[in-house]
Design goal:
14 strands, single chain, three-stranded antiparallel β-sheet, 7 helices, four-stranded antiparallel β-sheet, 2 domains, alpha+beta
Length: 294
């Protein structure tokens, strides 16, 4: 009986040692993973710009409303295009809701501003502040410097940089060929967007985009396309890919709080064809909503 008791006691002690060892090991692993997670979070945070951009899609600040530049499209080789953090909403060409970030990633061509649209193109400053961060070309991975940069202007002022005009032209002629062309990842609130790849077909505006292959050097000098056909193409492109001067987009029924459509996203009022994309339509829509409430 005593031997059985001693065996039981020894077994219990041995089991206790195993549990203690496992607990210590688990604690060490937990500490290691927590340290790695913190390091990863710090690294991700340091890679996000502190500049307050304007979202190409909705026209809102990319920093306000606690967005904090945590919503963005990462191009091949690392450049980021920032967007707002509005919840998923309906866009005219799709029967499902998507975030502005996912929409931008899939339909970047829709938000490209041609050089022939001089007023809108002027929102893109002819400078490359980002060049000091060591950015690289999304087409070839070549280093982009203040001496060799050229850029594609996006609505509301952000830019995609390239190391040569040839690389820029390669991008422009292919960006409307498929959703998310040269997009590496789509980030919402610091993590991959849940709807990152939900869009499988381009919007009408993106698919009808026609490339403007005029060149602009780092000094800001512009060279027109070399043929009459190309000149005609850039004019058509400006008409098809640039939204009205009043507002942009295919129309949305949901916004993040109260805001105006002027120089922002167009409002879709009640039905899909009713997009208030002019000052007159917007005024009548406002009056109509007021009368409905009476």
């Amino acid at each position: 009986m005593r031997s059985c008791l001693r065996l039981w006691t020894a077994a219990a002690a041995f089991a206790g040692l195993l549990v203690a060892s496992a607990t210590a090991h688990a604690g060490h692993e937990h500490h290691h993973h927590m340290h790695a997670a913190v390091a990863h979070r710090d690294l991700a945070s340091s890679a996000v710009s502190s500049t307050d951009y304007t979202c190409p899609v909705c026209g809102m600040s990319t920093m306000d409303s606690d967005y904090d530049n945590e919503n963005y499209v990462v191009m091949a080789n690392g450049q980021k295009i920032y967007s707002c953090g509005m919840p998923a909403r309906l866009f005219g060409d799709y029967d499902f809701s998507v975030t502005d970030t996912a929409y931008l990633a899939a339909n970047m061509a829709e938000f490209i501003v041609n050089q022939t649209a001089t007023t809108d193109y002027a929102t893109c400053e002819s400078a490359c502040a980002e060049c000091s961060d060591g950015i690289t070309d999304p087409v070839t991975g070549d280093a982009i410097t203040t001496d060799n940069y050229v850029y594609v202007c996006l609505k509301n002022g952000q830019k995609i940089y390239f190391a040569s005009q040839d690389n820029k032209n390669t991008y422009l002629t292919s960006v409307s060929s498929e959703p998310r062309y040269l997009v590496d990842s789509v980030i919402c609130s610091g993590s991959t967007c849940s709807d990152a790849t939900n869009i499988t077909a381009l919007s009408a505006a993106a698919s009808s985009f026609v490339a403007d292959l005029s060149s602009a050097s780092a000094s800001g000098t512009t060279t027109a396309a070399s043929s009459d056909t190309a000149t005609s193409t850039t004019t058509d492109s400006d008409t098809s890919s640039t939204s009205s001067s009043f507002c942009s987009g295919q129309g949305s029924v949901m916004f993040n709080g109260f805001q105006t459509s002027i120089n922002g996203s167009c409002v879709m009022l009640l039905f899909q064809p009713w997009v208030l994309n002019s000052a007159v339509k917007y005024a009548f829509g406002f009056i109509g909503c007021f009368l409905i409430a009476l």
